[in-house]
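Consider the tokenized backbone below.
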């Protein structure tokens, strides 16, 4: 018999009794985490939040018996972009502890599979640590990734729509993000103000040490202030964006996300094994 919990897709819409039902049904938590930051002269500040949340909501709409969407965490690690008005920054330590506490709360209530869907590139290493921290401190499993990583599952998909140069044509407020926004909320996109910008560190392409793209990066990472490599806040070629591309990107992302949820939901736990000849007599170091 289907419970009332499986008819709801938003975590915040549940009662505490619904939460018990959702746990019993092994529903997977999708936690969108984004950022409030500049995205060039043509996109609003909510890009990272809007895109990540939209993907999660659509996935839950299609698989309501398996997915619950948690309230979006709308601020991220963003000190590097503060030269551009509107950007909001949260320090890495506050951000990590806050997100980890949220995930550990889900785990405490019985949700054993949590998927962090990230909308902001600079959150990525921190959210991966949040996932590891939660796994080490609870009995839940946590996955964390950028939503556009779902576009890499099919090795032929990206080249089927991409026109921007590689590397650098897709990175921030670019062909990908602008196309998605045109599809989901085109009335808020000012395409007449869209300008392309390929960051100087991509000049040597994929033959140098430092190059960055949404779908690949060089062997060395040096992250400077955003204003040192873009005068307009754009990294990529938004002028190549279209709503039609956005529709295809959105569909692929949602489809692959649901596939991952199905796999992750049924992934068996693997027991930990202590190989010390003598049992440790002190506590583990802090995570």
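A designed sequence for it:
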């Amino acid at each position: 018999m289907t419970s009332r919990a499986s008819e709801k897709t938003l975590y915040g819409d549940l009662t505490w009794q619904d939460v018990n039902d959702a746990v019993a049904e092994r529903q997977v938590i999708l936690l969108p985490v984004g950022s409030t930051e500049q995205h060039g002269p043509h996109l609003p500040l909510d890009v990272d939040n809007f895109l990540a949340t939209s993907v999660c909501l659509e996935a839950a709409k299609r698989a309501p018996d398996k997915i619950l969407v948690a309230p979006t965490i709308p601020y991220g690690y963003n000190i590097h972009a503060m030269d551009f008005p509107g950007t909001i920054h949260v320090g890495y330590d506050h951000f990590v502890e806050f997100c980890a506490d949220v995930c550990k709360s889900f785990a405490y209530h019985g949700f054993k599979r949590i998927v962090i869907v990230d909308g902001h590139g600079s959150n990525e290493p921190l959210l991966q640590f949040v996932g590891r921290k939660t796994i080490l401190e609870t009995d839940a499993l946590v996955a964390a990734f950028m939503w556009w990583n779902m576009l890499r599952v099919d090795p032929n998909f990206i080249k089927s729509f991409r026109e921007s140069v590689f590397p650098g044509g897709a990175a921030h407020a670019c062909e990908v993000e602008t196309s998605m926004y045109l599809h989901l909320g085109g009335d808020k996109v000012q395409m007449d103000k869209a300008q392309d910008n390929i960051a100087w560190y991509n000049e040597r392409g994929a033959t140098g040490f430092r190059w960055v793209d949404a779908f690949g990066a060089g062997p060395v990472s040096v992250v400077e202030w955003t204003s040192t490599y873009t005068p307009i806040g754009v990294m990529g070629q938004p002028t190549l964006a279209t709503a039609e591309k956005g529709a295809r990107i959105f569909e692929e992302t949602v489809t692959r996300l649901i596939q991952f949820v199905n796999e992750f939901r049924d992934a068996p736990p693997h027991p930990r094994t202590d190989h010390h000849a003598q049992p440790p007599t002190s506590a583990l170091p802090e995570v």
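The chain has seven helices and eight strands.
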